[in-house]
Specification:
Helix 14 links the parallel strand 12 and strand 13. The chain has 19 helices and 24 strands. The protein has 531 residues and is α/β, with parallel strands linked by helices. Strands 11-12-13-14-15 form a 5-stranded mixed sheet. The chain has a 4-stranded parallel sheet with strand order 4-3-5-6, sandwiched between helices.
């Protein structure tokens, strides 16, 4: 097939060069829609060159790390392209982090500048940092995104004007100097356990992986992509706007997910592509205003990061009108893409597995001694190939502990391969708990519980038990209009899973605590239980 032979890293060379090529190919077609702002591909390329000129004027050069902390927006895209076009390395920052968490990442990465919003969700990131960590090197050059200048040295408009004396030829020359092997970004892990670690990723890794993925997912220039996952995560940045620009797809950034606003945007902009965790699709399906919106343009979807029941896949196709529903697996250390289902796979395959490895990537399942295990037997998922990070920024010990001498990335995830080579992810090693000597994997139990119709969302944690050592505690979000009791859930579970998997405790909640990437914050659930 076409995308099995095209090397998108060799075609595009660097992320900024994608925009220059897209401007030639797609010209006056719409590239980005952000509120009232509508940019064509040609206009996006012009803004990128302006941003590269300004980044060069600011002193950003090859290898310089620059923090970027703002919600999904056109300005985020242009800022990232400007930094990378000058040869710099983008350090995306989680917008839900507090100043202490942000300062740790800026200090660890050695960032020499910071682009940040002064007014997102009531937070002025630069102002907070000036008060809590005024000595940070990144605060020597600060630029405000999205509205007020706050405590930044330069507003966004002032930044763009700073490059007036830098010729456009210098910006194009800086982009021309980039190669697929140059570092594009340092993506810090979510930090849900311990300090975040900076994952080093190159231009070529991202272009090759997401050029293939978006072609497999049938992206084309007639599509419009509502990008809901945050840009500080590969899901929003690379599977989102980067993959779109390669194919002439219109990007509609969404800064904060709101189901009703999403429904309005889908109808107004004729959105055809949405990728995201299952909770997004649950919320769209369950919103009382959904029947009043035209969703017939929806075409392609993919979920990742958690389980998806077959009933949700059927509802996404029938009630949200998606033609294609995919599932995928990856982690930041693997450019966030390892396996994916393919167009034409059955609903059972999409629900039960995360599909087959992408081309030129190897996946093994190994026991604790590092030996391969047979099909359908659980073990640790190991990955090797071009998608694997060069390592953690300034942390050789952590790198050596994660990537072995043969190049295998030890993911810490538990799963198995079936006879057809599809990967089923069972759980994280660290989330496993032991019930009377039996290994219990929360993700597997959660998937089983989602088969109970009254349960909309669920998260399972292991909690201490005097007799069995540990048992499961399920935090359940019931479907609207249903009535559930702890006894109901436990009785249903006893009918549908092995006894050691059955949660001994059930807690009902209105919502599950999640980070901005929609991962459930299980440490908060553990703290809630202990409290």
């Amino acid at each position: 097939m076409r995308h099995d032979v095209i090397r998108h890293d060799q075609e595009f060379l660097s992320i900024p060069n994608v925009v220059r090529i897209a401007a030639r190919r797609f010209g006056d077609a719409t590239a980005v829609v952000d509120g009232e702002l509508r940019l064509t591909f040609r206009e996006l390329a012009d803004r990128m060159i302006q941003a590269v000129r300004s980044a060069l004027a600011l002193g950003i050069g090859p290898g310089d790390r620059v923090g970027l902390c703002a919600p999904n927006s056109a300005e985020w895209i242009v800022a990232a392209l400007g930094i990378q076009g000058a040869g710099g390395v983008v350090v995306p920052l989680n917008t839900r982090f507090k100043s202490g968490e942000i300062s740790y990442i800026l200090r660890k990465s050695g960032a020499r500048a910071l682009f940040a919003s002064a007014s997102f969700l009531g937070t002025d990131y630069i102002g907070d940092l000036r008060r809590s960590a005024p000595e940070l090197p990144a605060l020597r050059a600060t630029v405000s995104l999205l509205g007020s200048q706050g405590d930044a040295d330069l507003s966004w408009i002032e930044f763009l004007g700073k490059g007036v004396d830098v010729p456009a030829s210098a910006a194009h020359g800086a982009i021309d100097a980039l190669t697929p092997d140059d570092v594009a970004d340092v993506m810090f892990t979510s930090g849900t356990t311990g300090h975040p670690k900076g994952v080093i990723l190159t231009h070529g890794q991202s272009l090759r992986a997401y050029g293939w993925m978006s072609t497999e997912y049938t992206f084309d220039a007639s599509d419009c992509f509502l990008v809901i996952p945050p840009f500080f995560h590969c899901f929003g940045y690379k599977a989102g706007w980067l993959a779109s620009l390669m194919h002439g797809v219109t990007v509609v950034p969404m800064p904060v997910f709101d189901a009703r606003q999403a429904l309005e945007t889908i109808s107004r902009e004729r959105v055809s592509v949405i990728l995201g965790p299952p909770t997004i699709f649950h919320d769209l399906l369950n919103h009382p205003a959904r029947p009043g919106y035209d969703l017939s343009s929806l075409r392609v979807s993919m979920t990742g990061g958690t389980t998806i029941p077959e009933s949700l896949i059927r509802a996404m196709k029938k009630e949200l009108s998606f033609d294609i529903v995919m599932s995928a697996y990856g982690l930041t250390e693997s450019t966030a893409l390892v396996t994916t289902t393919r167009v034409g796979d059955t609903e059972e395959t999409v629900a039960r597995t995360t599909g087959r490895p992408i081309p030129h990537i190897e996946v093994r399942i190994a026991d604790d001694a590092g030996r391969d295990v047979p099909p359908d037997q659980d073990g640790e998922i190991l990955v090797r190939g071009y998608n694997v990070t060069r390592g953690y920024w300034d942390d050789p010990a952590a790198t050596a502990a994660t990537i072995d001498c043969d190049g295998w990335l030890h993911t810490g995830d538990i799963g198995h391969l079936d006879a057809d080579g599809n990967l089923a992810v069972v759980d994280r090693k660290k989330d496993m708990y032991i019930v009377g000597g039996f290994n219990a994997y929360p993700a597997e139990i959660e998937k089983l519980l989602l088969g109970h119709e009254p349960i909309a969302q669920v998260a399972v944690i292991g909690v201490p038990d005097e007799r069995l050592g540990e048992v499961g505690c399920a935090y359940v979000v019931p479907r609207p209009g249903t009535h559930l009791t702890e006894e109901d859930v436990i009785a249903w579970a006893r009918e549908h899973m092995a006894n050691f998997k059955v949660p001994r405790h059930v807690r009902f909640v209105d919502h599950l605590p999640r980070n901005a990437g929609q991962k459930v914050l299980k440490h908060e659930l553990r703290a809630r239980h202990e409290g």
